[in-house]
Input
Amino acid sequence: MKKLRVTVNGVSYDVDVEILEDDDEGGAAYGYGLTAMPMNQIAPPMGAGPAPAPARQPSAPIPTSGAANELTSPIAGLVHDVKVKVGDTVKENQPVVVIEAMKMNTNISSPVNGKVKEIMVKAGDPVQQGQVLVIFE
Output
């Protein structure tokens, strides 16, 4: 028996290989009735993809509305930046929040002239389409 380490699809296995016969050049012809034990994990069956990730559940209900004095997210993504703070005066079409989706930043602009009453998100927060980002007075 000969002990070998084999790596398949990034998973290493320590295997015992039985030598059935030597070839004419002094090498060995190995039998492949192997006993393999995974080092870290069991390899998935051939042709099977990785197990699906469990769906993330939000910890609190996502506020959605669409009222005229609310800025809602038109896309799902991560908040990259919040360009205003509570009390700031904004003009219609002024960028207020930047959302990153699919490695692209999207400016989300104020729908109204007004004053920032409440900011519902911060940088790094995941957001869903329709989620309220900012409330204006």
Notes: The chain has two domains: 2-38, 70-136. The chain has a mean pLDDT of 79. Residues 18 and 31 are 6 Å apart (CA to CA). Residues 2-38 form one domain.
